[in-house]
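Q: Predict the bound structure with fe (ii) ion.
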Amino acid sequence: MKDLKKEIQRSFRLEMIGTGLYSALAKQYGRQNPNLGERLQTFSDDERMHGRLFQKCSQNLYGNALGGEQLWHFVGKMAAWAMRPLPLEAKLKKLNIAEKHAVEQIEQALATGEDTSFHKAIRVILRDEKAHAAFYDEWRSSSPMQT
Ligand SMILES: [Fe+2]
Ligand SMILES: [Fe+2]
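A: Predicted complex:
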């Protein structure tokens, strides 16, 4: 990987944005639909754990802890707020595209066969991102009438 340090920072940022975004959606929809709220909160917790893994990576490789967690968390919440006018289906579709993209990027990074602590982290993360990416179809098939 060309610039591992930058890649770790970028990944950390995206995970923290995801944490804020999913938790805001979990709050927004959890009242009317506790199952959906719970699922979205689980995704938020996954993304937080992923962010922590990238923080550990950075600490191990470069000796510096990545900061700005609260800021990126807030950016995620704002992203959820900006999506408010969209129907739930459109929000989940957007997230689905982002999650599929994450899966592709992780698979590409793993295909190089490198085995840094970054690669160890993304190997763990991949399983969760696949579950996040699968959620849209799952949700569609369980609530075909909902838009
Ligand atoms: Fe993640
Ligand atoms: Fe994800």
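A: The chain has a mean pLDDT of 94.
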